[in-house]
Write a structure and sequence with these properties.
The radius of gyration is 18 Å and the shape is globular. It is an alpha/beta fold. The chain contains 9 helices and 9 strands.
C-alpha cells in the first residue's frame, strides 16, 4: 500500500505551552488508524494540524491530489436558527460544484431520512447530528476522513451503530480513516494501527502489538484501562 499521509517531527506550541512534540508517523491508503490518549493530550489539535488549520513545525505530507473530510466531535447548534441538514449539504454542494445526485448519494450512505434532512439542526439527536456531519464530510468524495470522537456522549448501542457505519463507509468507499477514540475495545476490534498520544507520540503500530498494560498505564497516568477511557 502507498502512503497517503505522513507526519515528520511535527510540533505545535501555543504561547509557551508545547501541545504536540515531535510527532512522526505514516498512514497507508485504506488504513483505519485510531488515536488515543488522555484528556488534553493534543488529539483534536493533531487532527486540525493535519488539516492545515493550526501553525506547526515539522512536515505534514499528503499524497499529491489527496483530499480530506473532517467530522468534528460536536458543533454547538442554536436551536432557534432555522437551518436544516439539507440546507447545510446544499450550501457545500454549491461551493464545491456538486449537485442533487451527490447529495442523495451521501444521504443514502449514512442513513439520513427525509425527516432528519428537514429538521432544524438544533433539534436533532446527537446520533442524528453526527450522521449529518459525516454526510457533510463525505460530500466531495474525500480520500481521507478524520473523525474526532464520533461516539462522544452516545450510549453503547449508539456507539456500536456508529462504529459499524464507519467500517461500512470505509469498505464501500475505500476510505482512509483516522479516528480519535476513547474506547480501547474499539481500537482492538476495528483499528489496523493505533497512535498513542500524550503531547508526544508514545506508540504507533498494530493495537495487539503496542497496547501493552505497561504502555496503557504510562499513557493514562498510572491507570490501566481495557474498556472505555474518557478523553
Amino acid at each position: 500500500m502507498a502512503v497517503i499521509l505522513e507526519l515528520k517531527n511535527v510540533s505545535v506550541t501555543f504561547g509557551h505551552r508545547m501541545v504536540l512534540e515531535d510527532i512522526s508517523f505514516a498512514v497507508e491508503e485504506g488504513e483505519d488508524v485510531a488515536i488515543i490518549g488522555p484528556n488534553g493530550s493534543g488529539k483534536t489539535v493533531l487532527l486540525k494540524t493535519i488539516l492545515g488549520l493550526i501553525p506547526h513545525e515539522g512536515q505534514v505530507i499528503w499524497r499529491p491530489g489527496a483530499t480530506a473530510g473532517y467530522v468534528p466531535q460536536k458543533i454547538e447548534a442554536d436551536r432557534s436558527v432555522p437551518l436544516n441538514v439539507r440546507n447545510l449539504l446544499e450550501s457545500k454542494a454549491a461551493i464545491i460544484g456538486k449537485g442533487e445526485k451527490e447529495i442523495a448519494e451521501v444521504v443514502g450512505r449514512v442513513g439520513l431520512t427525509e425527516l432528519m434532512l428537514t429538521t432544524q439542526v438544533g433539534h436533532l439527536s446527537g446520533g442524528q447530528f453526527q450522521r449529518a456531519l459525516i454526510a457533510f464530510a463525505l460530500l466531495g468524495d474525500p480520500d481521507v476522513v478524520l473523525f474526532d470522537e464520533p461516539t462522544a456522549s452516545m450510549d453503547e448501542p449508539g456507539e456500536e451503530q456508529m462504529y459499524a457505519l464507519i467500517d461500512r463507509l470505509q469498505a464501500e468507499m475505500g476510505l482512509t480513516v483516522l479516528v480519535v477514540s476513547h474506547d480501547i475495545s474499539f481500537v482492538h476490534r476495528h483499528a489496523a494501527k493505533v497512535l498513542c498520544l500524550n503531547h508526544s507520540g508514545l506508540c504507533f503500530g498494530p493495537p495487539h502489538g503496542v497496547l501493552t498494560p505497561e504502555l496503557l498505564s504510562k499513557l493514562f497516568d498510572g491507570t490501566t484501562l481495557y474498556g472505555h477511557t474518557h478523553s
